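To: structure desk
From: M.T.
Subject: fold request, one chain
Message: Could you run this one when you get a chance? Sequence is below, nothing fancy, just the single chain.
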Amino acid sequence: MKLFSFFTKSKKTGSDSTIDSAEILEEQSVVKDQSEAEEIETALSLHPEWNVPQEQEYVFRFLANELEPLKPNQISLSGIDIDVEEANGSWLVKAFFRSSLDQPISVGSVELLLLDGEGKTLASDEFDLSELGNIPARSARPWVFVFTKEHLFAEEPPTENWKLAFNVQSMVPHRLELEEAWENGLAAEQKGALAKVVEGLPKLKPREVNISGFQVKEQEDGSIATSVFIRNGHSKQINIEQLPLELLDATGDLVARGSFKLGPLAVSANTSKPWTFIYPKEMIQKEAPDFSRWIVRVPQQDA
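Reply: Done. Structure tokens follow.
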């Protein structure tokens, strides 16, 4: 591995982002009876596949020795500096992954946010932290987190007072969210059935929002009712005021198209909210549609 070769500077421009280990480790975290005032130094730990020259290891040790102590049972990301990959514009964010736990740990996939000094998100992406390997007890492991251009929200990287932070919400299982009317109007069995449908849907990408239909019904008055999940993969709540939607049947034909005002409708972070949209008769463009398969989608730009 050659990631260590990016660490050439001994000046630290980033700050620390620290959380309680229980927020991301669940059963791995073993909380002991330790004083909250205790300060824990973290020792440098290099990835076992890295073959680091002596001069490079000196830089690592210098940086690691400058880190502030942690409190018991904490996980921290300590920003070092950021370079830009000239070939493709990616940002190479260098940081120490630190643990004050008394046992080794490993972490799976989690979204990381690059924040400026005012807390504004400059970049975000999901990383598989298992690539760092097992992190020994009370240690600090250097790593390079690569944010490609499609995950950047600024033209230039920050030069000081930035930090790399865990989006803890991204590790919470995606769940069903019901509006009050649905919560009060559905039986427990119906709620359970909807929750199982949500569990079986494909995993959303970070910041992805999509529509997934689960029921369509032609009404006696000639309208068509479509029930869908509005799925929010963002780490923050979204509010939808108006939503254009088109209904296509099994042949791919456009059955109906309309724009719906929602008031706005709030969809919490990392949830799927069911909602029913009714296309009145005047919006319907195809008679006798084939609903053996169907989709509801936001109209494409060239539609």
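Reply (cont.): Residues 3-171 form one domain. Let me know if you need anything else for the meeting.
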